């Protein structure tokens, strides 16, 4: 009988990076249907929000992230099974429709619930890549996914810095992480809120935007944890893999199927 210790095969790093680049590019296309629904440009959506709402958006998003961080983690402790990508998308789509029915007040009330479901879905993706969602570093990496530009923004890969940032999760570090992530997520969620205020179409636009956002952040999570997994299996530093992925996206390096 062999006494060899089983190990993961050495991955084809270039092929893995090509696959992650395809995911990243695909994620950027998920906001098109939402923009078509509301009939506008992403840059103009935030202007539809009342000034008092825009001024409080960063704070409200940071509060939503802090609450989601704890609730999403506790829901895993209760052994609530992870949903599939489409199940998560349908759930948030229904919440977006409900949030859009009453215009801005109900959309604001729905926002922290959606953030919690999204974070829970991201943690499930971390688990699918072999990471323990209870690990403080993995929980921090899950929050970092929200630092991506959002499905309504154009991104050529220059926004990948969040992937290579390592955070040791303590109380002060968590507050610092949320403080850095919240403005980015607030800008993305502000566009979502604005879409939900469209007269008559608020519920439909809310469902469309929530579904686009869920698909987007799930794809970004696959990129985040796929890179971390590739770094672990190949012994190549995460920062180096991040840079190689960035070059693929910025220079449009042809991707192998």
Question: How would you sum up this structure in a few lines?
Answer:
The chain has 257 residues and is mostly helical.
Q: How does this structure look, described?
A:
The structure is a single chain. The protein has 257 residues and is mainly alpha-helical. The chain has one domain. It is 68% helix and 0% strand. It has helices at 13-27, 32-38, 42-45, 51-77, 85-101, 104-128, 136-144, 171-196, 202-234, 238-250. Helix 5 runs antiparallel to helix 9.
Helix content: 55-70%
Order of helices and strands: HHHHHHHHHH
Number of distinct helices: 10
Mean pLDDT: 80
**N- and C-termini, Cα separation:** 39 Å
How many individual β-strands? 0
Radius of gyration: 19 Å
Parts with pLDDT < 50 across at least 5 consecutive residues: 1-7
Helix-and-strand structural type: mainly alpha
The coarse silhouette is globular
The main pleated sheet reads as: none
Whole-number tally of structural domains: 1
- Residue share in β-strands: under 5%
